[in-house]
Amino acid sequence: MCIASGTCYGRMENSSKEDYKIQSFDLETQKLLKTALKDPGSVDLEKVSSVIVDQSLKDQIFSREAGRICHTIVQLTRSIQAEAKQSNGNVFRRNLLNRLQLEFKAREETRKRSTQEWVCLVSFICNIFDYLKVNNMPMVALVPPVYDCLFRLAQSDSLKNEEEVDCLVLQLHRIGDQLEKMNTPLMDELFNLLRDGFLLQEDLSSMGRLLLLEILEFRAGGWTLSDTAQKYYYSEVTD
Amino acid sequence: MSEQQSYSYENDCKSDENRNKGASRWSQCRKRGADGSLRKAEEDQRCSRRPESFTTPESDGPVSRVKNWGDAVEAEEMRSDVRRDMHRYRRRILAVDVPQRDRKLSSGSSDSRDSQNSKDSTAKGDIETDEAVLVRRQKQINYGKNTLAYDRYIKEVPKLMREQGVHPKTPNKFKKYSRRSWDQQIKLWRVKLHAWDPPAGDLQQIEEIDLGEIMDFELDVECSADPESQCPSANAAALSLAEDSFRGTPKKMMKMEDAEMS
């Protein structure tokens, strides 16, 4: 048994450094984003943050990678002249985070409406947590919401859903170690839930069970997989 | 938040108890209940745990459910920037500390703008470390640096070319000053910077007024006509400053400092 060869954990390294995965946007929006990346002072940054959040909720691939383009725009907006600054502080980041907060508040309705949107939301929040740092430190303000999402995914009604388990383990692979450093007792508690789910929950799919076992081993190994475990889980992945 | 999370906010203790003696969150520190009877020690102990949403000026600040994320992250960034600046400053001070040690400290002088005096006092390790103070000061500095005038100034006069007393110098937030002294330094610094305002009539000047900007003191426009300060565009500057004094609407939103200003 093995995890599908298409699964790719960790940050996607692309041959083109500039690949922000914006192909899924319509052409006009792509133009807007490209302009924002070249000259952030010249565009409506509130609109830019808005389109990015909207798209992240629809597009699974983008939701997992949007952090990078956001990071770049934030860095660029720091360096623009005072005359182009729309106000004190970082307009783009502020709008992005506040919009994200609204979506987070509505997460339960989103989950009821569409599992896909829900997992996109979680991926996006976690990706932002991964890429948008404050002086190279993770944003403390995002730690409770991120944990909240992961705890939600660890509930029994989510665990029986392979799509949600997949999302959960993806996030833990990417940001688990950082999250643990920010709050170890919470991570311990989360993993208690995962252990319980793995052992006791009967309506888990076999893939779901496999994913949980792998993440349990992953964390136990210090957020890395031993060679033998790697072979066991990923033996059919082409090099 | 789901029930399983142990970090869910703690409820007020004994909410169903008789209100007169009840241990509400407001009676935590009171010796007597509303009926005058002394509260027992045990009640105090049970209620000594405060809900996590309880904040004090010394704590980290409101939890994320109270603030919006944008503000929370900006506040985080402020604090972390100020801490980083402090480490850098300390290292810089220690580096120049050694040659200063055998100089005699001038006694009784309270003029902290005397650079020699300041160097000695910081060499002793006497710097401002209170994060709340540093953050407040940094905000005031940011208001000044976020102006067209400041941008034009730094482009025009490189740091090496700056003359003491002539060219505005950003107040040093790490030096120990009283609140009044600091606010005054900021005020004078901002006034000096006005000399580099874009020429009057420039539409961009209007954009400079940030309605979100709150200044902690009143800007005294009269003292802007400082005869000692020279600048390249002295005549134009004096003219535009004089015009400012007569304009009906102040250029920036101002707010009088509260009781702190003694």
UniProtKB/TrEMBL annotation, chain B:
GO terms for biological process: mRNA 3'-end processing by stem-loop binding and cleavage; mRNA transport. GO terms for cellular component: cytoplasm; histone pre-mRNA 3'end processing complex. InterPro entries: SLBP1/SLBP2, SLBP_RNA_bind, SLBP_RNA_bind_sf. It holds the Pfam family SLBP_RNA_bind. Keywords: RNA-binding. Residues 129-198 form the Histone RNA hairpin-binding protein RNA-binding domain. One of its GO terms (molecular function) is histone pre-mRNA stem-loop binding. Residues 1-71, 100-131 are annotated as: Disordered. Residues 11-20, 32-52, 100-127 have a biased composition (Basic and acidic residues). Belongs to the SLBP family. This is Histone RNA hairpin-binding protein RNA-binding domain-containing protein. It comes from Phoxinus phoxinus (Eurasian minnow).
